[in-house]
Amino acid sequence: ANNPTWPAAAASRIRIKITNDSYCRLFYNHSTGSINLVPLTADDASAITTAPHAEIYDHSQTSDNVEQDPLYQSYLSQSKDDSKQIIVDSFHPDDVIGANLSLEYNLHNPNTFHGMQSYASAQINIYCYPKNNRKKQREPNHKSYIVDSKCCEDFSDVRALIQSIRTLSGLQNNNTNNNNALPQRFLVILNPYSGGNGPKSKSGATFVYETMVKPMLEQAGVEHDKLATNHGGHAKERMELRKSTSDDNDNNGEERGDCTDSELKDISEYDAIIAMGGDGILFEIFQGIHARSTDEAQILSKLKFGIVPCGTCNGLAKSILHWSDNAEYTPMESVFQICKGHTSRLDLASYQLAKTEKTYTSFLSFSWGLIADCDLESECLRWLGAIRTDIWAVYRGILFPKKYRARFSYLPLSNKTNNSSASTKID
Questions:
Q1: Which of 14, 101, 154, 182 is exposed most, by the fewest CB atoms within 10 A?
Q2: How far is residue 110's CA from residue 89's CA, in Å, rounded to a whole number?
Q3: What is the CA angle 327-330-335, rounded to 5?
Q4: Whether 29 contacts 84, CB under 8 Å
Q5: CA 10 to CA 7: how far, in whole Å?
Q6: Where are the beta strands (DSSP E) in 191-263?
Q7: Please, which residues bridge with residue 344 across strands?
Q8: Is 0.85 surpassed by the pTM of this model?
Q9: Of 175, 179, 275, 169, which Cα lies nearest the Cα of 227?
Q10: Closest CA to 193 of 227, 233, 226, 229
């Protein structure tokens, strides 16, 4: 049976031009779920050679039952046995983050005479990131297919095919099904000094953004604003910032000065926030949202959060990718999952320090004592990268150890006991 999301009738009318004398069509492989580029049959190729301009497909000239149409029957005859197809090219929807149609018009082409739309040359662009069989890591392998403009008058079949590819790829969340829906807009917050190697490092957030995050979000059809932090706590301050809506900002342009949307928009106007750095940049983001006591719950329920590992410690990114279908721990894998719109709910914890009313939000764990010292005190060795925490563990844990005094309290397990807690001292 045909996949209900694959437009077999439209695909039967679309010819992909390989060379001047060679054409193919796109087929959906039912057994593997992949989309294959397969050469046309001899009859189809002969029809193109003998009457190239006469074969403009017109919906009004076909029978009411599209299944009786000769082109459709020829298409299905090739797809009955997927295993015997000659495959020129192939891609799997699971590896696709975006697909679009690009058109170019040539008003001086003397060989076309079927109206304004026939002057267009069309190209189907598929943005794929399959896993390398040897390295098991994703690498870009994009597809560009030139459509023979003589086989379609208004490219409605091509658009239907692209929409089907997006649906099979699970990209409906990018608001492409609704022409009236606004595109998604993300706020990307990056720490240019994450990882300890400075803004020019090829493993740092700035380089990863320019070479990976920015192009991949554009390929996925996601608009975004970028904010590079310039001091500690900058991300927290940005989350706390409350501004009027974007329309109000446009009406008061003289007050904006050199500020950009990434600095002015209230975060409630975004669909997602992407943190680029280590765990610290996301920690700042959550503390800033937590400080918005009046609308914290609303913000957390509306926004989605993503993290691209570029820092010294990337505990959350590693944890997320560990549970993401054997996903490799790389920045590209994280961006890929973000572009695909893969999300899951995350538990947050809240804690309060003794003798204060200040509370914090946590997404990984609470650390106190030696572990906390290795993280915080080793900031002076940030330039060393991830090894700084190991060095500080030797320094603080062996060479110059500290004693940590604390009182540990807990609630009794039995429901019959009262609300009083038991406690014990730890040295």
A1: 182
A2: 32
A3: 85
A4: no
A5: 5
A6: 223-228
A7: none
A8: no
A9: 275
A10: 229
